[in-house]
Amino acid sequence: MIRVLISLLLIFSPVCLAWETTCGKVKRVFSWSSGSDRYGLRATLTNLPESCTGFWIAHQDENKQFAFSMLLSSAASGIKTCIQYDPDLTKYDGMCKLNHVYIETKH
């Protein structure tokens, strides 16, 4: 199931050469069901890059529910989580736009 979700996120992600990845445990997850702000989802990891204070996904982004589910389950279980982002894209409140998220297990 997780592999299917990861594959879907990768297939529908835009192609960009500047993507970077950071990994750590999920420290915080914020979710808004609606609102006038640009964030539908915000997350922080225990290991943040210097270029980002956290990560965000817009309300209207297609796979927001999949990313939220993965971040929430990894936060509850303490599993290492990796987030791909572009540090050069426009930031909001110091946060980088999340491109995709994946979970690394010890197996």
What does this structure look like?
- This protein is of the alpha+beta class.
- 22% of the residues lie in helices and 35% in strands.
- The protein contains two helices and six strands.
- The chain has helices at residues 2-11, 64-77, and strands at 20-24, 26-31, 39-45, 55-58, 80-85, 96-104.
- The protein has a six-stranded mixed sheet, sandwiched between helices.
- The protein is globular and about 40 Å long.
- The mean pLDDT is 83.
Q: What are the secondary-structure elements, in order, as H or E? A: HEEEEHEE
Task: Summarize the amount of helix as a percent range.
Answer: 10-25%
The fraction of residues in strands falls at 25-35%
Average pLDDT reading: 83
Counting DSSP H or I runs of 4 or more residues, the number of helices is 2
From the alpha carbons, calculate the radius of gyration and give it in angstroms.
Answer: 13 Å
The strand count comes to: 6
Q: In this structure, how is the largest beta sheet organized? A: 6 strands, mixed
Query: What gross morphology would you assign?
Result: globular
Structural class: alpha+beta
Parts with pLDDT < 50 across at least 5 consecutive residues: none
Strand order of the largest sheet: 1-5-6-4-3-2
| First-residue to last-residue Cα separation | 16 Å
